[in-house]
Design goal:
Number of strands of chain A: 11
Low-confidence stretches of chain B: none
Helix content of chain B: 25-40%
Strand order of the largest sheet of chain B: 5-9-8-6-10
Shape of chain B: globular
Number of helices of chain B: 7
Order of helices and strands of chain B: EHEEEHEEEHEHHEHEH
Radius of gyration of chain B: 17 Å
Oligomer: heterodimer
Structural class of chain A: alpha/beta
Strand content of chain B: 25-35%
Number of strands of chain B: 10
Shape of chain A: globular
Chain lengths: 264, 247
Amino acid sequence: MSNNKKHETKGGLLDDNLQYHVQLKKGDVSDFVIMPGDPGRVEFIAEHFDSATLVADNREYKTMTGKYKGRSVSVTSTGIGCPSTAIAVEELANVGAKTFVRLGTSGAMQEYTRIGEKVIATGAVRFEGTSVQYMPIEFPAVASHDMVSSLINSAKNANLSYHVGIVQSKDSFYGQHNPEGMPIAAELLQKWDAWVKGGVLCSEMEAATLFVVGSYRKVRTGAVLLVAGDQARQESLSKEDYKENMTESINMILESSLEIEEGS
Amino acid sequence: MKSVQKVEQVKHLPLKLGEIARYVIVPGDPNRVPLIAESLENPIHQGQEREFNAYKGTYKGIEVSVVSTGIGCPSTAIAVEELCHIGAEVLIRIGTSGSVDKTAKKGDIFIATAAVRDDGTSKQYIPIEFPAVASHSVVESLIKASEDLNIQTKVGICQSKDSFFGEMEPERMPVAPYLDYKWSAWQKGGVGASEMEAATLFTLSHIKKIQAGAILAIETSDKKIVHDMTKIVLESITKMEKSRNVK
């Protein structure tokens, strides 16, 4: 395991060992990595491990590695959006990560998706600009079947209220929250309506690229999106509820990691 | 509450309201319908209109229909719409396909988790960014059934195209560079099989709020493989019916 100190001279790009943005090298991360968007959530997630060490902290990428019930696990933040997520997935895959599970928050899109519920994503709407720089738009952003099954099992075992289905990944946060104010309001509103009719469960900002880059890099992917807000009902989770629901989501992912054979 | 009266007779399928099972096997080829129906108990031929051939029977006591879609997404969309209208809830495609990234080879059976939307039909339903994903529970039941039956399968993404000869002989097409470029992307992206109906089947299943899946034979339409795929699908249906009754 690597040191805790900040790297004084940054390696990467020309350096095979140290990855340029995440500042990680082989041995620093587990094969199983939990990926929140927010670097400020990394420590909170690692508190649910049995042990954890800070291994890197650069830009929006903060990584801690440790153990959960004897299994090695890591957590690395992606920052907001697909561009920084693609970098994280590529660089982590370079240093041995094989399973990537995003843990994020999302906004409800269906009448029946309520705040506090967990959405296990089977696929994502590619309403973002990064994944199309990997694969033509016709390619489906789809999570790995076995990861989805493991997440469903742990959600069932913990008796959580959850949904399984498609989520929407967007690039513009304020385009979702204030579509009318945008120059392309008509497109935003029309597409949103189409996603709702297509049964899309919730809206977030990273899953589509995680799934597409994951297919290309031949790694396992999944995502758990906690529904934290509901625009239609003007509801959002209180601070206490948020923490409690996050803990449930974290434990759900950690338990699912035990079903994934280490190193596979 | 005022309810909209459903039309009794649909326009293309040789079927009426109530004449369909909850579970429907949807091959492309109308001639493959009787072959699949052979595995049912008391199969009845309900009729054929155009490329839509319909049988119904039971398997271990569960009602199962077999209805062909014809080749391609346009006729598949018609079949899916009309099947949903008359009461179908779970559609499972049995089909043949080509191999793409060579992880699945001639003679393999391939269970599709999702499809590349290289078709024109699904775009007339929902923008192209929407992923054509199979129902997780159908895929799970197909995998479990194949394990129970000890039949090897591959699981992954398939590509749904509109032009059969664009895949077979891309070099002779006016858009050859475009076809080559896309094909090599699908190979690098890990697409295992190429066929012609799944993208629209999966996309529509989300819009119509039904469940859908697909099982494909790679580069063969050998009767033994069709029989194996039929066994897997029928066993998966017993699993889905069982978990439905638990709920």
